[in-house]
Amino acid sequence: MKNIDEIASQLQGYDPQALRADAVNAFLAELVQPVADTETLPLMAAHQRVLATDIISAISVPPHDNSAMDGYAFDGSALQPGQPLVLQPVVGTALAGKAWAGTVGPRQCVKIMTGAIMPAGLDTVVPQELTQPASSGPTEGAPTAICIPANLLQRGDNRRLAGEDLMQGRPALRAGQRLTPAAMGLAASLGLPTVTVYRRLKVAYFSTGDEILSLGDAPREGAVYDSNRYTVFGLLQRLGCEVIDLGVVPDQPEGLEAAFRQAAAEADAVITSGGVSVGEADHTKAMMKKLAGDDPASGCGVVFWRIAMRPGRPMAVGRIPKQALFQEKIASSALLESKHSNLFDSIPSTVLFGLPGNPVAVMVTFLAFVRPALLRMMGDTTAPPVLLKARSQEVLRKKPGRTEYQRGTVTTAPDGSLHVRTTGNQGSGVLRSMAEANGLIVLHHDQGNVAMGDEVDVMMFDGMI
Predict the structure, then answer these.
(1) Which residues pair with 389 in a beta bridge?
(2) Which of 316, 344, 377 is the last residue of a domain?
(3) Over the stretch 143-178, which tens digit does the pLDDT of each residue have?
(4) Which residues of 33-72 are buried (b: 16+ CB within 10 A; e: fewer)?
(5) Residues in CB range of 355: below 8 A, 6 or more apart
(6) Do 284 and 346 belong to one domain?
(7) How many other C-beta atoms lie within 10 A of the C-beta of residue 17?
(8) Each residue of 306-350: pLDDT tens digit?
């Protein structure tokens, strides 16, 4: 486990007082590690959980060649370019769920239902609606012969091959993949009643500040109701985390220490909002430093950043040891000798994310930085969401040298192209703008002003908040 200084030394141009947004994610990718504990769950209880092992297909899907639609199955070698084909007689009907046991002669066919096993020797299906009856049987509407118009089909059309979806012995789903509804269906198609997944990530959260009111408190001058607790709670629930809600903690040493120690003891990660900006009361930052310790060998510690971004900027990250007085025990231990240099790889610790206090800044820093880090801790190895390209419907003023995340609304123009415009006031305390937006316009570090009609990147909210 690398300590804070080792991680920082690997980042070119690392400056905690002017940190690029892209460097934040690079740092956090090294800071956090996936949980190791797993559990086996019924498939129905595993929705949105992360697979801990590869799922290898024990069967081929489909297990047999079968028909892709209702129609007539025949030997496609009888098709001739430019010539219609008459098939007669229709010697039987193949239904889904069981094999048809008859035999088919040259230029004969079998009526077949979608999903039915292809009879032996037959490799092509003509959809029923594309055929013409060549002769009728005693039952009206049941032809004994059919005609296929010229140049309508090629040999092998409308046949699903055995193993076309999955071949026996091949990986169907990989470890680190989230069990979406589609993935659950795929696992079910293999007959799997249970799956092995990583346990839920435990994340503790509390707001800090003497000016914060809890819901139900009487209003008072200079105080505001705590919205961050509810937005972060919703963001964590959307990720599938087990949330430990520690409420609002006043900016006082005793209460802060108790909250941090409880969070460190019970959770894999702790998120706070408020108390990390320059000029704010120092109790929160001081408590983070005290509990994280200053011994680089332990792997624990905390760093305070000023990120070149808007909104956001102040953020604290680090690790807090789970055990009380752990640092003191380590400092006096003879186990610090070089022959035990791997001791600290197993130190139990909780990852710390100290977010700014402004409501929009909390949500933006969570989406941009904390969410990817928590996904890594959950064992999720899927690629991050793709940024969409949309044309700005207004001039956006920006100076190079910081990353800006502006709240925007993406719409589809009549020609099918994507357009985006901001929600108006972009102040970091305007929470209404996040509720009205459906994405964040991402203006990158080196980017300047955006003219009307220019393409910009957009981080869409769908599935995130």
Answers:
(1) 457
(2) 377
(3) 889 999 999 999 999 999 999 999 999 999 999 999
(4) ebbeebeeeeeeebeebbbbeebebeebbbeebbbebbbb
(5) 228, 271, 272, 273, 274, 276, 315, 361, 362, 365, 366, 370
(6) yes
(7) 10
(8) 999 999 999 999 999 986 444 444 444 444 443 444 444 455 899
